[in-house]
Each structure stands twice: as structure tokens, then as C-alpha cells.
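Re-running the complex after MR caught last week's input typo. The corrected sequence lines follow. Everything else is unchanged.
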Amino acid sequence: MRTRFQQGLDELRNRLLRMGGLAEQAVDRACQAYIDRDLARCQMVLEGESQINLIEREIDELAFDLLAMQQPMAVDLRFILAVTKINSDLERVGDQSVNIAERVMDMAELPKADLPVDIARMAAAASAMVRRSLESFIEGKAELAQAVLEMDNVVDRMKDEAFVRLVKTMNDRPEETRQALDALLIARNLERVADHATNIAEDVIFWVRGADVRHNVGNGLPAQQEASDT
Amino acid sequence: MGVGIKVEHLNAWFGKTQALHDINMDVPANHATAVIGPSGCGKSTYVRCLNRMHETIPDARAEGRVAIGTLDVYDGTPAVQIRRRIGMVFQKPNPFPTMSIYGNVAAGLKLNGFRDRRRLDEIVERSLRLSALWEEVKDTLHKQSGASLSGGQQQRLCIARALAVQPEVLLMDEPCSALDPISTGKIEELIFQLKENFTIVIVTHNMQQASRVAEFTGFFLLGKLIEFDKTEKIFTTPSDKRTEDYITGRFG
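Corrected-run output:
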């Protein structure tokens, strides 16, 4: 057993979990801020971004060191590659949360409009995808990740429906165009959050099974083992 | 050109101890194939069975079928004839210390009764060029002893000596383990070029080396072949948990 290497892998995993926690928290705060029109929460999301960015750099640096110093192979190599990609997706989840918070702040300055979209439901779905993709990483279980992939279509459909309805609102009630546009952008941000969760799930499958399932092109490799021991 | 090697149901013993168990591992022609595994796993024994070096050890014996191209290694063909077709390079460079560089490279041919001096010159030059040593020694071929070269140069001299008898297969048993990174890099580059004309089997403890030079890799454990596949498969997504545990350093 390579103790020092294993310690490095454990450290990488712990930092990614911390990153995942912050990204998940950012999405939830931004969505709750939309629901409650809560500017204080928006501010928390904005302030939290720098911490996410800092950890992103730390994770990349540690992964880079492990690649250079330990020459990982097989499941360890896949793990480190997956971590670097998940890291990048989580940072973007943080960015999307900031975008949502900014839109909420914009909406707060406008008269309240009764928009025909259920952003809260969409937010709950996207947030659940992030949470479950991170659970699949924690557990090292490809089947949990697979379930996340199947949720992506649901969020895509919600976004498409939101677009149709909000464009109609803009046509029917031009005075609410800004509010509708903000909601539309938030729907778009949430759809991107779901896409990042999908990417994370795909990376977990790559780590655990060595199978590249991106773009719906799996190579059909059988699971050799679950990777919870890494 | 190199030829493929077919190995079927190969078993080998040292006295009563069985070192190889029913190995079936074919080596494709004109490729480099790495054999990896922990100490005592049988990887060197496997390679030494390919050219019947194994039987040079007292009480050692082997059974099974090994075919180098169309030549059946264990059908009674004299071992010397087989070794002429299968060159071997060892862990520690072993040039003949009293011979010049030229003498070292020409030794195999002279032993076989080769006397045409002009042709011999051509073969020595060609072999030293193939082993990427020519430029470094061309002016001191007859003056300098093989043993006076650096470790890396000595190993390339041994490769030139093996190539001079124009084998079809080159077996390398840990050829870089005694060399510094620069010399190792030269040998690895050499392997990359040599496989155009030779079939190469390399035993190595260095997994990065296996992944750098070989297209195929076999993993041995306790005298058994656990997994044989394309090198990138072995080092990224091995099929067997034992292979994965070994190459990720979880044992061995």
C-alpha cells in the first residue's frame, strides 16, 4: 500500500466533497432567494463564490501534484481525472448560482409579476440532481450516477416549457417583459446546473467503471467493481 | 522482419517447484509486449522459456508448446539454433570485457563461423546504428574495450550484439533497471524503433516503462498469467481486480 499516495487521494476526495457542499449550498440559497425574494441570501451566494473559486484552484493543484509525483494508474488515474472534471463542473454550478442570485436582485427592483412558470419545482429538480450526483461520488456507485443521467431530460423539458410560456408572457404583457426575461434566464441557469450534475454523474461512471458514457455513447464496459475503497 | 510467438499450455518447474502454470500468451509480431508482475511471479521464467534459456538452470524444465513463427521451440531443434533467432538482453549489461566494441558485436557471427571481413564490417556498423550507438563509438571501434563504455552504452552494445545475428525476436529482461533516466530514455526510444523489424518482449518492474514502450502487456502473478491485453487497457481499465491492485500499488 502506498500510504502517502492514499493520503493524497483521501485529501483530494475530502476537498472535492467540501467543494460539492459549497456548490450545492449556493444553488439552494439562490433558489430559495428567488422563492422568498430574499436579497440577503443573494448576497450570501455572491460572497460564497470566492471560496468556491479558491477550493477549485486547491483541488486542481493537488490533483496536478498527484499526477506528477505518484504516476497513478487504472482506477486511481480515473479517479483523479474525474475529480478534476467534477471540480470544474462544481465551480460552474457556483457560477450559475451567482447568475441566479443576480437575476433575483434585478427582479427585486421590479414590480412583482405573476409568471406562469414553476421555478421552485425546476430548482428542486436541478438541486436534487446535484445532490444525487455528489452522493454517487461519495458512494462510488455507478448506478446512482446512472439515475442522475435519467433526470436530465425532466429538467430540459421544464426549461423548454418555461421558455414557451415566458415568451408568451412577453407578448401578452409587455410591461412584464423584464421580469419574464429574468425568470427565463433563471430557467436557463437551472438547466445548466442540471447539465453540470449530469457531467458529474458521467465522470463518476467513468471513475467507477472506466466507461465513457458522455453524449449517450457508452462503451458498454461492465462494472469491474464499485470504487468505494479509493 | 519479426515473427509472432505462440505459447500454449506452457508449464515450467525449478526442481519440484512449479514456476509457470498453463500459460497461454501469444506475442504479436513487430510489436513490443511487456511482461509485468511482482518478484517471483514467473515473468522472467516465461521469457526464458521462449528461447530455452530456462533449461540451462540445473533441475529446471519446461513443457508445453512455444512456436516462434513456424519454428517449434520444444520439438528437438537444438537450443543454439533457436537462440540465434531469438536474441536476449539482460538486466545487467554484460559485454565481453576483454573484447573491443567491434569484437563484442561480431562475436556471435564469428562463433557461427562467419569470416567475410567486409560483410562483418557492414553488419557491425548496421547493428551499432540500429542500437543508436554508432555515432558515439565509430572512431574507437577497435581501440576501445566494451567494458570501458558507460552503463547505458554497454546495454546498447549488448543490444547491438544481439541484433548482429539477425534475430526475429528480441527478449529484454529488465534492460533498464541498472540505467539512469537518460540511458533509459535512449533504450526506450530504441525499442520503439526496433519493433519495426523485430518482435520485442520486455520484462519490466517499471510500469511507466511498460506503458511507454509496449502495445501489449501481460500481468503475471504466482506463476499464472492473470491478464493479457492492449497496454492502454491494462493501465486504465484492467479487467481483473488483481491486475488493478498490482498496478495501483495496493500490493506487490
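None of the earlier attempt is carried over here. The interface with chain B takes residues 1-2, 5, 71-78, 209-210, 221, 224-225 of chain A (CB under 8 Å). The helical segments of chain A are 3-36, 39-70, 74-108, 119-139, 142-172, 177-209.
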